[in-house]
Amino acid sequence: MDGSLGSHTAALLEPYADDAKNSGLPQYEAAELNEMAKQRVLAGFQLGFHAIGDKGVQMALDAYAGAEKAARDAGVKAPNGGNDFRLRIEHAQVTTPAEISRFKELKVIASMQPSHLLTDMRWAEDRLGPKRAATSYAWAAFLNKGVTIAFGTDYPVEPVTPFRGLYAAVTRKSEDGNQQYFPEQKITMDQAIAAYTTGAAFAEFEEKEKGKLVPGMLADFAVLDRDITAVSAEKVLGAKVLRTVVGGKTVYKAK
């Protein structure tokens, strides 16, 4: 949908606070995008759009609304045979409260990467100004509205370790602890773990196979050297994996 916030290419509804003549670079005209989305949903595809700026997010939501209506009118079902197409927006870093409400209304999944904040907090408020920044990287606002969040790491843009993302999600602080970015949007460790596990499984229609350790589901898990739900957030950053199990088989063991 657009570029990135750091390069001033994420598409914004209003100009950048530090570049008054620039509102970013949308990659599509709305009419073309809407038609592309409709065609693909009618063909049975699950869609995911990269959208970082609030204009990019708005365009994605508008396209999804039209595509979902077209599918309902045509009697087309989602990939799992249901009516929830689980359309997804990747990143969704800059959002308005009204857009977050539309995520809920349309059942769109917010696929987000909390570790981005550890990099972006150095300049994000300069790009957005305080009002827009207050509802950026808005994990708590999404969850409070009942929106499904799926967390990931966006490797290799950010390091692949999920521990940085968990730390960012629960503290919204820099790794040295010296800077914090709108702490009202931080979430609990249990919520963050769920976004990486059950939220991610739901986003790919595999919630009956992945995301939980229960009988009958895939035994995918990691054994850590500490209980990340009990230690301080700072100690989560240093967590080490002792063993990784995929489908019930050990695929990694620390020496």
Structure description:
By secondary structure, the chain is of the alpha/beta class. It has two domains: 30-212, Alpha-Beta Barrel (TIM Barrel), CATH 3.20.20.140; 219-255, no CATH class. It is built from nine helices and seven strands. The protein has a four-stranded parallel beta sheet. Strand 6 and strand 7 form a beta hairpin. Helix 1 crosses helix 2 (54-74), helix 2 packs parallel to helix 3 and helix 7 (162-171) crosses helix 8. It starts with 29 loop residues before the first helix and ends with a strand. The relative contact order is 0.10. The mean pLDDT is 97.
| Helix percentage range | 25-40%
Low-confidence stretches: none
Largest sheet: 4 strands, parallel
Strand order across the largest sheet: 1-2-3-4
Shape: globular
CATH fold-level assignment of the largest domain: TIM Barrel
Number of domains: 2
Give the N-to-C terminal Cα separation: 44 Å
Query: How big is the Rg?
Result: 19 Å
Task: Please state the average pLDDT score.
Answer: 97
